[in-house]
Recover the amino acids of this structure.
């Protein structure tokens, strides 16, 4: 299966063209629509991490082409969601114990070419 087929199966539909970079994500039942013009540039929307303490996500939050360090726990609360595209999250909790908490019945998280460690 080629990359476009995987992307289509995972995210919905992907369109790539032009030289100016931009992106848009739109809910589409249980999938999302990713539209890309040119190269993807780093961007964030929603509950942006403050740079210290716990990261609590209460709304639709997206990180694209980012590397960030979270110095606490990550919690996704309803109706929040977290989408990571080509993003790395480094966890550096103050007591060496961190958690990623998302209610499977009410929270949505999507990681595409991304890692949390």
């Amino acid at each position: 299966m080629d990359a476009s087929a995987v992307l289509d199966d995972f995210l919905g539909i992907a369109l790539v063209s032009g030289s100016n970079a931009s992106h848009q994500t739109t809910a589409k039942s249980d999938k999302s629509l990713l539209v890309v013009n040119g190269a993807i540039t780093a961007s964030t929307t929603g509950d942006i991490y403050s740079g210290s303490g716990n990261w609590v996500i209460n709304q639709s939050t997206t990180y694209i082409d980012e590397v960030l360090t979270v110095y606490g726990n990550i919690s996704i609360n309803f109706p929040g969601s977290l989408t990571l595209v080509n993003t790395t999250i480094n966890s550096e909790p103050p007591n060496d114990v961190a958690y990623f908490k998302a209610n499977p019945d009410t929270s949505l998280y999507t990681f595409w070419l991304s890692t949390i460690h």
Q: What stands out?
A: The chain has two domains: 1-39, 42-117. The chain has one helix and 13 strands. The helical segments are 3-11.
